[in-house]
Amino acid sequence: MSSSKLNPRKSGAYIVEHAKHVRVLPAGIEKLTQEIVKALIEKRIAVENFSQHELHPNPDSNQPEDYSKAADWVFVLDTLNFCFWTPDNYTKYKVDGYTGYFALCAAVKRAIKEGVDVITPKFYSEIDLKTLKHIFRSDDGETVIPLLQKRLESLHEVGKVLIDKYGGSFENVIKKAEKSAVRLLDLVVEEFPCFRDEAEFAGKRVSILKRAQILVGDVWSCYRGQGLGYFNDIDQITMFADYRIPQVLVHFGSLEYTSELMEFLKTDTILENGDPREVEIRGASIHIIEQVRDAVVKILKEQHPEISLDNVNSIVIDQYLWDYRRRHNADLEHIPFHKVLSIYY
């Protein structure tokens, strides 16, 4: 990452330092830390949770070709892992009963079952809008996956780069990173512009990189931190700043909005990508989870040496909080969230 641009962890700290609309509260960070430690002790947080999900690729099947295919599958999911809501409805787009990100996963899995070569760059680098629309058809037959044209452009862009420079396989990008999560993150952002989730904030170029980081995190999770998914610096990847996790952070009292921002969010107004309010919410989310991660590691070292720190990082904390939001949706729905129609999350 160029020296003029802050990485996500440094971006989070810098954004919080200059924030005008949000505050980070130590008492809430402490509360969240205790929640995470408890979940780790009770084994509710685990790297296996990703590949065990029925909609995710599992590289451990008996077919050797599935091993590298899983990487290409994850790459397609995360190239398209953005914006599943429309301004007037947050859960209308459904596939096989699933909403949001899991609707995307269900549509990709359905296409593979139907013999569509959806995870092969040669296929998706040339796919047309009509075919893409059919692949992502919804349960009601009417609702179209949001930002369909942007999804088409993203697939064309990344597919062409993989074919031209990486022998048509995302596995070769992973191998070029030489077991460094940071190098893989940099490669993804350099090579594929649709992953370049950055902003100008308080005179600096900050990077949030939600989808690029989730891609690195998903490769690590999919392969359970082994083989193709082994990275010697996976702890350098931060959480994936979206619009849902902040609800959990507000719920735990670690993130606080000014009354003006809270009133604004309640109006359901769509923000532009790069708006200072959006950047502050996402930057503060990164900063909070980094603080939580550091505190969790310290507690585990001192009080629970039996728990391995190999798989304790911001990725699994993020996955836990994302699931927490889905499980406690009714309790959290009163907390408004920022809305941005964007390919970045």
Report on the structure:
With 345 residues, the chain is mainly alpha-helical. Helices cover 52% and strands 7% of the residues. The protein contains 16 helices and nine strands. The chain has helices spanning 8-17, 26-41, 48-51, 65-79, 100-113, 121-124, 129-135, 148-165, 170-176, 181-191, 210-222, 245-251, 259-266, 276-303, 314-327, 329-332, and strands at 5-6, 22-24, 94-95, 98-99, 198-201, 204-207, 255-257, 270-271, 339-340. Strands 1-6-5 form a three-stranded mixed beta sheet. A hairpin with a 2-residue loop joins strand 5 (198-201) and strand 6 (204-207). Helix 2 (26-41) packs across helix 14, helix 4 (65-79) runs antiparallel to helix 11 (210-222) and helix 10 (181-191) crosses helix 11 (210-222).
Short précis:
The protein is mostly helical and 345 residues long. The chain is built from 16 helices and nine strands. The strands form four sheets. A three-stranded mixed sheet has the order 1-6-5. A two-stranded antiparallel ribbon has the order 2-7. Strands 3-4 form a two-stranded antiparallel ribbon.
